[in-house]
């Protein structure tokens, strides 16, 4: 477990004891859900502190790969525990939509920040292109899962929305500023992947294993631009970078 303030660790230890007790002796599913949600929040707090240290240190080359994998593992643990302790229930019903979204967002955003830093290390990428592309693919997958946690609202499902802007957002699965930021992150990562895939003959043999970055980036950024220049126009969302990326992807 990552080191942080004693209060966090004591809280985590107490919650882990509750989880062990549940696993050994059984208990009510409602109590399990609450304990797992509390545990997930502790994990989010502790890893947030560690992530910020990595960002502040600009992801040191010697230790970042190990620390990032540890953080990704820690942020995956609540899902694993939910599946193991409540196999008859969907993970999202155990942890709740917001926490599950946050787990995917935090893993995807961590890999985005890491790739954003690596993207500026041209010499490193020349020697580690496959590692870079793997990080991008993993990050895009997490961010796409974040966008898919909540189903978009179908306007013919008996839902009455008097605000056309709100209706537009919900129909596209945009529920918060974080969802919009996720779209921009996905677009940027897809652009980096296309840039380095196109100039790399070594990746062609494994193309079937890779995401269709050009298609994904184009689709996501088109939604982003439509939202920012439509209902969100004048709200401070910039589309210049998204449009520049789209002109290259298309």
Automatic annotation (TrEMBL):
A single BP term in Gene Ontology: mitophagy
Matches recorded under InterPro entries: RIMC1
Organism name: Labrus bergylta (ballan wrasse)
Lineage, opening ranks: Eukaryota, Metazoa, Chordata, Craniata, Vertebrata
Pfam families: RIMC1
Protein name per UniProt: RAB7A interacting MON1-CCZ1 complex subunit 1
Organism superkingdom: Eukaryota
């Amino acid at each position: 477990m990552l080191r942080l303030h004693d209060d966090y660790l004591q809280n985590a230890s107490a919650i882990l004891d509750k989880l062990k007790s549940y696993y050994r002796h059984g208990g009510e599913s409602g109590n399990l859900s609450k304990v797992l949600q509390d545990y997930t929040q502790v994990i989010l707090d502790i890893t947030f502190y560690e992530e910020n240290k990595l960002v502040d240190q600009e992801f040191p080359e010697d230790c970042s790969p190990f620390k990032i994998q540890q953080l990704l593992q820690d942020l995956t643990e609540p899902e694993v525990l939910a599946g193991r302790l409540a196999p008859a229930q969907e993970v999202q019903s155990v942890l709740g939509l917001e926490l599950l979204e946050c787990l995917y967002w935090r893993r995807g955003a961590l890999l985005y920040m890491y790739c954003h830093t690596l993207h500026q290390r041209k010499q490193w990428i020349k020697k580690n292109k496959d590692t870079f592309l793997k990080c991008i693919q993993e990050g895009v997958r997490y961010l796409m899962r974040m966008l898919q946690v909540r189903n978009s609202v179908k306007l013919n499902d008996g839902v009455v929305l008097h605000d056309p802007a709100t209706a537009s957002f919900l129909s596209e699965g945009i529920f918060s500023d974080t969802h919009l930021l996720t779209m921009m992150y996905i677009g940027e990562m897809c652009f980096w992947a296309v840039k380095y895939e196109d100039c790399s003959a070594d990746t062609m043999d494994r193309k079937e294993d890779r995401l269709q970055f050009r298609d994904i980036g184009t689709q996501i950024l088109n939604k982003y631009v439509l939202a920012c220049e439509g209902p969100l126009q004048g709200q401070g969302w910039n589309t210049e970078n998204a449009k520049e990326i789209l002109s290259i992807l298309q």
